[in-house]
Predict the structure.
Amino acid sequence: MGLKRTLNLLDATSVGIGAIIGAGIFVVLGIAIGYAGPAIIISIIIAGIVASFTAFSFAELGSAIPKEGGAYEFAFELISPFAGFLVGSLWLFAQIVAGAAISLGFASYFVAIFPIFPVKTVAVVAALTLTGLNIVGIKQSTTINNVLVMIKIAILCLFIGFGIFQIHPQNFSQFSPNGSFGILQGAGFIFFAYLGFGRIAALGEEVKNPERNLPLAVLIALVVSVIIYVLTGLTATGLLNYQILAQSGSPIAEAAKVMGNFTIVAAVSLGALIATISVLLTNLIGSSRVAFAMARNGQLPKSIAKVSSRFGTPYLSVLAMGALLTVLAFALDLKQTVAITSFAILLTHLTVNLSAMRLRRKMPNSKGFRVPLYPLIPSLGFLSCIILMFSLPQESWIVAGVVVAISTILYMLGKVRDRYD
């Protein structure tokens, strides 16, 4: 049984925006500000430009190869099955670790409002609840996500609309406390926030008219998100000293307190809850579809590719991803998690840009969206991903190296097994 094309342009775009505008802006922004200071605005723009190069590659690839799995499927078909397996492994690792971090971010905001509950317990309950929703159906999940996206955008617009008129210019006096490298480090962490557009491509078989809607959804989601991020970063650093924001696990709420308006503070806290739960929802959607695609190609147990006859969802892959995410929510540190996730996704984006460079040679008659200034744009995407990788901490390189090594061993063992079966 296959998957059904049930998602329209609004649904696909909302999956991207829902994934981008979430933990990155409500939680990770504070970490990035610690490196870049008020120059976080420049970091956001740099990360957005880097993301845009790769977004164009995703747009063309998703239009030409509208299959479930996104970056994994592109590497599998255009580079090699081994490259596909490495990309799929890195993508799943990054998304599961990110999902655990996001569930902890949600729990932190929740406990700030309802302090009687333990953070870890809230994180686990959130993960399990959204796993259940994902099993019930993609259309139900995206309908809920559409509503959540509209609410959190409205709340951020409220924060920006009131806060931008109360900015204190003295907060920009130390504009770039750590110089150019601090700005680049901030961009490396903020890149974590832009990872969501890749989840649109992972739903290639569930989007209607994918040749048109997939590339449009990717590009609209990124443009809208960059604009909101820049305005939010400008407002937050203008309201409150960057050193205070850097120490806060809820930087937007902390900045909102300066306005002295309890309604706005409460709205921002609610927005953080909605934003993080929306990202967690799309995280599970995206990671389960990559696992489904890998299983269908024989690179994970075939049973994971089973589709529910009742709900039309790959329920076993959803359960597997939800279970892993729930377990990891007990053991992770947010700052390390963001660095590791960003590095792993940057590695997968290298292969996405490489796949885009190979597409027109391997599939010269492909239809749909075409990257402008080809092959310059995917080449810039490839190089800029490498530059951002060097801005991230050493442990992220080590962890990613371990994941690649383990994935390589597993792939070789699988090839040996297939030879003797």
Remarks:
- The CA atoms of residues 103 and 123 lie 5 Å apart.
- The longest helix spans residues 262-296.
- The chain has one domain: 9-415.
